[in-house]
Amino acid sequence: MSNFINPELVPKKKLYTGEKIPCIGMGTFGSDRFTPEQVSAAVAGAIRCGYRMFDCAACYGNEDLIGEVFQAAFDEGVVKREELCIMSKVWNDMHERVEESCRKSVKDLKCEYIDIFFIHWPFPNYHAPGCDGDSRNPDSRPFSVEEFVNTYRQCEDLVKKGLIKNIGISNMTIPKLEAVLPKLNIQPVACEMELHPCFQQQELFDYLVAHNIQPIGFMPIGSPTRPERDMMPEDIADIQTPEMQAIAKAHNLHPAVIALKWAVQRGQIPIPFSIHELEYVSNLRCTLADPLTKEEMDSIATLERNNRLVKGQVFLWESAKDWHDLWDEDGFIQKA
Ligand SMILES: NC(=O)c1ccc[n+]([C@@H]2O[C@H](COP(=O)([O-])OP(=O)(O)OC[C@H]3O[C@@H](n4cnc5c(N)ncnc54)[C@H](OP(=O)(O)O)[C@@H]3O)[C@@H](O)[C@H]2O)c1
């Protein structure tokens, strides 16, 4: 079987702007395990296999190498810039210097403009790369509507300047969205959120859809190769559940691919990561045919375990109780 999948055959999702983007993209976070060279080589391979959407971020530390890959693909006529949907994100330590961060991403990615530019986390709290999972930065603080809107306004200016086409948000909650959406001049087109069979975030998913914001699901396979700091003994391995294994067997596919089929059929855009060609090709191919049955979709729906993997404990402020404080689980924005 050829490894090329005609991008025109890959189903599309329509944003509220009318723009159409692929129903699946490729993640580029190396999870502290895969080098920038490995990740950018996978991006090069993926473009040639038919991927047209890439989820990048300044903090992944590999945009410069991915940019070289994009440039080579443009120069060699493999793809035109306008055929790609390139996403990037401003990291937490640049919330007051969004334009500088965006210009650096555009320069590194050699892409002239970003298709969807995300605010990676809704607060300016950050941690040193590779720091201990329990360490707290004394500068960290709870979410502030004012600070978020200030960061978002800078993104709105970037749209006007043509540096970005659309704005995205990430790691949000319904209380935060309720507080900020009415204050925004340009509504976000998409929201990146953790989504996999054992963490379905149905309420937030429905809220986004009702507000014409496209959910983009990160860690769609349950991120089996995530950094050590995000591995907890109580975490469930989605693709090892008997239900996922049984459905995989019925389709003669890896359960990772079943998780992606479920994601696409449910309506989020999954952004799976892999440096292995066989894997990333099957991840893209699975969107073309052989849909899951209603019974299979229903069976996966029962796997919800509220198993958040990226708990965000490294972003906690000093007086915070634990990571639950970041996610407004009681229905209101947590104060200091
Ligand atoms: N906005 C945010 O805050 C945020 C947070 C986290 C992630 N993200 C984005 O989401 C992307 C995806 O998340 P992720 O990389 O953590 O997790 P993921 O996509 O759920 O899992 C990736 C791992 O799954 C395995 N895999 C992939 N395809 C497979 C296949 N067909 N068969 C078998 N195994 C397969 C690979 O492991 P092996 O190498 O062992 O095969 C790969 O390393 C990231 O790269 C990043 O772009 C965004």
How are the elements arranged and paired?
Blueprint: E1 12-14, E2 20-22, E3 26-27, H1 36-49, E4 53-55, H2 63-75, E5 85-90, H3 98-109, E6 114-119, H4 145-161, E7 164-170, H5 174-180, E8 190-194, H6 202-210, E9 214-218, H7 242-251, H8 255-266, E10 269-270, H9 277-285, H10 294-301
Parallel strand pairs: 3-4, 4-5, 5-6, 6-7, 7-8, 8-9, 9-10
Antiparallel strand pairs: 1-2
Helix pairs in contact: 1-2, 2-3, 7-8
NADP nicotinamide-adenine-dinucleotide phosphate binds next to helix 8 and helix 9.
Sum up the overall morphology in one term.
globular
Report the bound ligands by name, code or SMILES. NADP nicotinamide-adenine-dinucleotide phosphate
Q: Largest beta sheet: what is the strand line-up?
A: 3-4-5-6-7-8-9-10
Q: What integer value in Å does the Rg equal?
A: 19 Å
Biggest sheet overview: 8 strands, parallel
Any low-confidence stretches, pLDDT <50, length ≥5? Answer: none
State the order of secondary-structure elements, H for helix, E for strand.
EEEHEHEHEHEHEHEHHEHH
Q: How many strand segments?
A: 10
Strand portion: 5-15%
Helix content: 25-40%
Individual helix count:
10
Report, as a whole number of angstroms, the end-to-end distance.
56 Å
Structural class by sheet pairing and helices: alpha/beta
Q: What's the average pLDDT? A: 96
